[in-house]
Amino acid sequence: MSLTLKLITLLLLALSHHAESGSIVKFLPGFEGPLPFELETGYIGVGDKEDLQMFYYFVKSENNPQEDPLLIWLTGGPGCSSLFAILFENGPLALKFELYNGTLPSLVTTTYSWTKMANIVFLDQPVGAGFSYSRTPLLNKVSDTGEVKVIHEFLQKWLSKHPEFYSNPFYVTGDSYSGKIVPPLVQEISRGNYICCKPPINIQGYILGNPITQITSENNSKIPYAHGMALISDELYESLKRICKGNYENVGSRNTECLKHIEIYNKCTDKLNTYHILLPDCDMTSPDCFLYNYFLLNKWANNERVRRALQVTKGSIGEWRRCNYDVIPYNYDIQSTVPYHMNNSISGFRSLIYSGDHDMLVPFIATQAWIRSLNYSIVDDWRPWMVNDQIAGYTRSYANKMTYATIKASGHTAEYKPNETFIMFQRWISGQPL
């Protein structure tokens, strides 16, 4: 083969490789001028016939993409889009808070993006979340264990199309329901490195915010949490403990006295915003409400110009939803991820677990309880961690390379305190104490 023909062949291979792996997005409707970071969007086909089309957003590190860590971010739900993380939690853009007047909502840059020091693949998962879709009807329910396999396959295929990132330190990250997915996924990747998959994924650890870990324990912790936050009286709490014996879940008709007390508890707490108990529980269409930006997000993501810019396959989904709880038939088949945390610790992986201390959905006392159950010795005991000489939260480190941190006055996701969450991440990912 002549040198010219070889060069043409290599060029064609490179072009086809790029086309398969996604496309660079240089402009986004609502943002003035070219994007000041590198964004790639695309689909990776998963399954025997690649019927599952998994949509991702890849943002290159704004620092040193060749050497900085590579993260995959999984938003919870199950069924919430990773676009929420990009525009609300730890991405380089945010929606400008302004009254909707029928025009496209505006985007602005952020100062707290984790992409300032990491490459991040934000994945819409499972199928039905965000812009991910299936080309054929799903024959089986989506499940926790099935999703672990899907994401692992996604990662293998994504890295094969982006081989320059194989050597970067890799971390699995997410929050909320991804607490059920991230620990088994870390184990799956680790085992896959030995059994099936070459080159290996350079996995170093994982990060979880307000993670759902074992739902019964987390639900049972809501009443002690409510008491600690002065939401119920001492007398009611003592009666609940005595009569219900610490089990407030699925009481049924077996204990009518317990049910009566739970009813009183519900009257005290039903009107709370469980995602952040300090914020009002109001309709997201109210401009006076923190959730109004969710309304703006819905308007932005369902705009046809936006979908074209993101290169979403036309007709692949109907209305985009921040969280698509209705469409996905889901099998919650992992009851507890504590054994996976234990296995990952034995394998030597680093981990950062954090809790917004005003989250009532996954109260910090439940998270602390399962971490204690791992029975690892403490290497850096409970202390405040500081930002600008102010207490940003509290932290403790364990001998199994696990760091736990609270974020003061934050709620269920990083959107409530993105600056503090960013500084926590920045310190941890670079190996510094919080």
From TrEMBL:
<comment type="similarity">
    <text>Belongs to the peptidase S10 family.</text>
</comment>
<feature type="signal peptide">
    <location>
        <begin position="1"/>
        <end position="21"/>
    </location>
</feature>
<keyword id="KW-0964">Secreted</keyword>
<dbReference type="InterPro" id="IPR029058">
    <property type="entry name" value="AB_hydrolase_fold"/>
</dbReference>
<dbReference type="GO" id="GO:0004185">
    <property type="term" value="F:serine-type carboxypeptidase activity"/>
</dbReference>
<dbReference type="GO" id="GO:0019748">
    <property type="term" value="P:secondary metabolic process"/>
</dbReference>
<keyword id="KW-0732">Signal</keyword>
<dbReference type="GO" id="GO:0016752">
    <property type="term" value="F:sinapoyltransferase activity"/>
</dbReference>
<dbReference type="Pfam" id="PF00450">
    <property type="entry name" value="Peptidase_S10"/>
</dbReference>
<dbReference type="GO" id="GO:0006508">
    <property type="term" value="P:proteolysis"/>
</dbReference>
<dbReference type="InterPro" id="IPR001563">
    <property type="entry name" value="Peptidase_S10"/>
</dbReference>
<keyword id="KW-0325">Glycoprotein</keyword>
<protein>
    <recommendedName>
        <fullName>Sinapoylglucose:choline sinapoyltransferase</fullName>
    </recommendedName>
</protein>
<keyword id="KW-1015">Disulfide bond</keyword>
